[in-house]
Design goal:
Layout: E1 24-27, E2 37-38, E3 44-46, E4 53-55, E5 72-74, E6 89-92, E7 101-103, E8 111-113, E9 117-120, H1 129-135, H2 139-149, H3 159-163, E10 166-169, H4 172-210, E11 233-236, H5 237-240, E12 241-243, E13 255-260, E14 263-271, H6 277-280, E15 283-286, E16 290-294, E17 306-309, E18 315-318, E19 322-327, H7 334-344, H8 348-351, H9 356-360, H10 368-372, E20 375-378, H11 384-423
Parallel strand pairs: 4-8, 14-17
Antiparallel strand pairs: 1-10, 2-9, 3-5, 4-5, 6-7, 6-9, 11-20, 12-19, 13-14, 15-18, 16-17, 16-19
Helix pairs in contact: 1-4, 4-11
């Protein structure tokens, strides 16, 4: 008697399908209009509207979208068969991105797909393309990719193997319902992502107006109460801050190993007083409203950033990586300085003070002397602190909106991920 396969049923089904019985597990190849196809084996060339747009692995995001930032072209006499059609899905077949997928959307424009991608074209009377596209983002699919690709010397899944991939299948009506539900969520996520991008762009544009441009003495935009306050002045950083040389030593406190990012210093790891004294002497102390400049690059610390530490606990950073300084708060509002650094990190006046030797090696390493000579634009003395505070409060409010929007976006993504875990069976026979 033949062995019976285990019934495959998702945890969550739409009401009209709850009595429809278990799903079947089918091989992908049997549900395709044609065998899996490899893309064009040709090099990419700079993007040109006179040439076909070339879809490469690097143009596909982790969520299966087209990244339009650095598109390239391909210099071939493209035939109809080279272009993707509505309903087509391409899969990365090799390298670190093996298994990554993209479902073609006509609104993305005409695309020729590259040789490291494999096209699958579902037979629509058996397999809904949108259903398959969402399945290719699930845990069971990625476990299958990991298992199959591990069998070869380097990560890779070929067309024959993709054709043998098991796919859990309900009827077409249920496939469509699942695809429509998850596609609606995708549209909402895309909308919320655009809102986040718009807020971030608004903040960037506002910062460019609130701080003077190079060669100018006043910003393009001032709050009404400061419009008659006169031109700004320029101070050297050393006039408004002091370098911190305080070491962790034997202080009885919790120490944080932190990294400077754009704007704020964030926690990487926490360690306690058991750290040996010799190692503790290699850390500078940071207190609330102190700054850390990342003068050199390691795996965990990208160089060239200045961050404001706003934690309540005493923090410590490696003295071999960071230069730390403390603002004189009667002269400068810490958050004002943070936003000024945020817009100018890697910018015109920061690069001007990089040492010649460091610049020759492509480094952003600024020594203490050069760092303290960076020019800092400040409102006129009579209104300096109030105007700085107003600018800081305005941009901080925008940051709060951006953070709220980012959390909302992440919550939607988490909701979709959880829903997919319910809508697709999680245990599938290979």
């Amino acid at each position: 008697m033949p062995e019976q396969k285990k019934a495959v049923v998702p945890r969550l089904r739409f009401p009209e399908f709850r009595d429809a019985g278990p799903w079947e597990v089918k091989r992908l190849g049997g549900m395709l209009a044609q065998p899996p196809e490899y893309g064009v084996n040709a090099p990419a060339v700079p993007f040109s509207t006179d040439l076909p747009t070339y879809l490469r692995i690097t143009d596909i995001t982790e969520t299966g979208q087209l990244n339009k930032e650095n598109l390239a072209s391909v210099d071939i006499n493209a035939q109809d068969a080279h272009y993707l059609s509505e309903g087509d899905i391409v899969l990365a077949r090799t390298g670190a991105s093996v298994g990554k997928s993209y479902k073609y959307r006509p609104e993305d424009g005409k695309l020729v797909f590259a040789g490291y991608l494999i096209r699958v074209r579902p037979k629509q009377q058996r397999l809904n393309s949108g259903f398959l596209a969402h399945y290719l983002l699930t845990g069971p699919y990625w476990r299958w990719v990991e298992t199959v690709s591990a069998r070869s010397g380097q990560p890779g899944v070929n067309g024959t193997q993709f054709a043998q991939m098991p796919v859990p299948l309900p009827g077409l009506s249920e496939q469509q319902k699942i695809a429509d539900c998850l596609s609606s969520l995708d549209e909402l996520i895309e909308l919320e992502a655009k809102k986040l991008e718009a807020l971030q762009a608004h903040k960037k544009g506002l910062m460019q107006q609130l701080f003077p441009r190079e060669g100018e003495t006043t910003p393009r935009l001032r709050f009404p109460e400061f419009r008659d306050a006169g031109p700004w002045e320029v101070k050297r950083l050393g006039e408004i801050v002091e370098i911190i040389n305080e070491r962790a030593g034997d202080k009885k406190c919790t120490l944080l190993s932190v990294t400077a990012g754009i704007g704020l210093v964030s926690q990487v790891e926490k360690f306690g007083c058991e750290i040996a004294g010799k190692q503790r002497r290699n850390y500078f102390i940071l207190r609330k409203n102190d700054f850390a400049y990342n003068k050199s690059s390691t795996k965990d610390y990208p160089e060239g950033y200045i961050g404001l530490y706003e934690g309540d606990e005493i923090a410590a950073v490696p003295n071999s990586i960071f230069v730390c300084f403390r603002p004189a708060q009667e002269k400068v509002v810490p958050r004002y300085l943070r936003f000024l650094f945020e817009i100018n990190v890697h910018g015109r006046w920061m690069r001007r003070f990089i040492t010649v030797g460091a610049r020759a090696h492509g480094s952003l390493n600024i020594d203490n002397h050069d760092l303290l000579h960076i020019p800092i634009p400040l409102p006129a003395t009579a209104v300096s602190i109030p105007e700085q505070q107003k600018i800081a409060d305005c941009l901080s409010s925008l940051d709060e909106l951006i953070e709220l929007q980012a959390k909302q976006l992440e919550a939607l993504k988490a909701h979709k991920k959880g829903l997919m875990q319910q809508l697709f069976p999680q245990e599938i026979d290979p």
